[in-house]
Amino acid sequence: MKKRFAILAILSLFVLGTASASVVGALLTGSSGTITVSDSGITWNPDTAATPTTTCFGSPCNGDVASGSSLMFTGCATGVNGSAGCLTTTEGILIDNGNPLTPSTTIPEDKFIQFESHPTLDFKLTSIGTPFVNEAPLTTACATLTLGQSCVPFIGSPIVLTLTATGTNAHIDLFGVASDTSGSSFSSNWSGSFSAPITGKSPGTLELEFCTSDTNAAQTAASCNTTASESTSNSGTFLVTVIPEPGSFMLIGGGLIGLAALFRRRKNQ
Fold first, then answer.
1. Which of 117, 163, 199, 262 has its CA 20 to 30 A from that of 132?
2. Do residues 162 and 196 lie in contact, with contact meaning Cβ atoms separated by under 8 Å?
3. Are the C-beta atoms of residues 162 and 171 closer than 8 Å to each other?
4. Which tens digits make up the pLDDT trace of 206-246?
């Protein structure tokens, strides 16, 4: 019996050890720079306050790690501001290589989020999601929303506009994979969103800015092709989970089978 428990303990340690070597936890981002929201995309503007320097991989940093992050990865045991190798609050990041994120962005996009002091830590973008409300596609009738409801400027837009008590929250949902080593070995999944508050303007007002011919009918990208945009502060929240390895599944399954057999034997004795 002791031998079986010892084997199960070794298997458990192996599984946990495999998971601990992956990127896992929460990444919060923010900046004293601004984000520019248009009808079909968002642009992260340079953040001159990002530290320790203002340059990320040859381009101006356009964001930084925010307080509350708990991201862990190889060489990091306790998250932000922990042991050597961890992220630090206000570490500069480069989002989308300084480019606008639009429906025409090539997916997948490697190095979507890069970290100034951790060049091997890589967030790769694999898809841009459009949320659903009440299991139905989001409406384009932005002028008829009630508090808390959402719309899109046009069908297919990555930008979602939600009516708030002070105006509008514009956000975009993103999904991808993460790695903490050089190369293409991605061991974690991430999902998250960037949000930007636009005070004093409702989704209906913004839709009229972005889509000047709007009549609350189904808009298209072509009918909303304007140069109107809004610049405001922004924040991002990303949750990172480990992608289970096939070997881990086998070990977990074997351990459960061993426990079941052990309990069955004890019951029969």
1. 199
2. no
3. yes
4. 888 887 655 555 566 666 766 788 888 888 999 999 987 65
% helix, strand, coil for the chain, step of 5:
20, 35, 45
Phi, psi at residue 66, to the nearest 5°?
A: -100, 155
pLDDT value, residue 34: 81
Q: How many CB atoms lie within 10 A of CB 185?
A: 11
Q: Which residue carries 């298209």 as its tokens?
A: 220
List, in order, residues 6 or more apart from 269 with CB less than 8 Å away.
Answer: none
Give the pair of three-digit tokens for residue 239.
């949750």
Token pair 């808009």: residue: 219
Q: Is the peptide bond before 108 cis (omega within 30 degrees of 0)?
A: yes
What b/e string do you get for 121-143 counting C-beta neighbours within 10 Å, with b at 16 or more? bbbbbbebeeeeeeeeebbbbbe
